[in-house]
Amino acid sequence: MSAQSPKSSRDPSRESLSSSEMPSNEADPIDMETSSSNPDDGLQAIRLVDASDDEPYADAVAKIQRCQEILGYEFQDLDLLRSALTHASGASHRLASNERLEFLGDSVLGLTVCEWLFNEYPEYSEGDLTKIKSAVVSRRSCGKVACKLGLDQCLIVGRGVTRNRSYPKSLVSDVYEAVIAALYIDGGPEIVRDRLKQWLAEEVTLAVDTQGSGNHKSVLQQFAQRELSATPVYKLIRETGPDHRKMFLMGAMVDDRRFAPAWGNNKKDAEQRAAANALAELHNAKVPYDSEQPPS
Length: 296
Prior knowledge:
296 residues
């Protein structure tokens, strides 16, 4: 599984960390010292560790080594990985941070996932594949995977800044994309493809279940019978509109648990959408269909 290659002779710790100013108008700031566990984020607890913390991976050298263990890959160019892990607050200048690698990693991630979906789901249309891909490469998904892997603890930041600063939620998804770019440059597309297929397997399954136009009722029934030993039932909650243009609000129930209902032009369509909402809730994801008011 691991791709082994000689380590670079360059010392990844030769540069000292310095704390540079971050823009104060970043959207959705979050205190990284305390963590984020909001279910809407899809993120596990975010833990940044700086060089002043009493942690086993607190210094840059240890973080680089730990990241290679997480990735199952030894870099030929350790400076490349250092750049991928270095936040602007821990860089000696802006170009030494992971921002340029993040730019490349975003495209590498998108292309790899597109190729994956194109080959694995030939029955889906371009529109369905676009929706699935958007869900898989979203900041929520990337941040969730990055935290699950432990990449947040490998991020190199300025000394002491985790105690004094707030950061955008996108921080962990940014380092995730930067690491993907570093893997791509150092190891090639096959290395990236193998790892993304492991890291994103659950996210792809969830996105296919909730974003594609497949038979959501069938998927929900299989899931409910397999995981919950129950069979879904559908209830008509409300209908509205004239006889020639009625709208129906249907809700799914599994073993007395009610899920977010959904509107449809007919009962069959509404049931499919209600099943998609139920699948999303069962996977702790945002429901794809609104239940507040019928579509115009």
